[in-house]
Amino acid sequence: MRKCSDRKKKRQRLIRRLVLFIVVFMLVAGSLAAYHFKQRSIRAEKVDEYHELQQKYADLQKKEQNLKEEIKLLNDDDYILDIARTNYFFSKKGEVIFKNEQKDPSY
Known about the structure:
Blueprint: H1 2-74, H2 77-88
């Protein structure tokens, strides 16, 4: 009789240990899975932000190139005179400028 009760107790202890181990394992696995998915979402946000910043950087580089080109043109006296002639009706000696009120050309 004693052997039977000892076996039952050992079996109950084994079952309790296994249940405890499974519960601990599930808690650890669940927390690791939650951490993993959180890190994936953070990484996806960072990748999106990285691509957005790369696009902004490319746009800024183009803008910088255009501004450098404009600086070169503004240092040229002929270009400044052309701007003055077209925008402010600046004329050369002996040149007559006629202002045309029509917005659409007739050609």
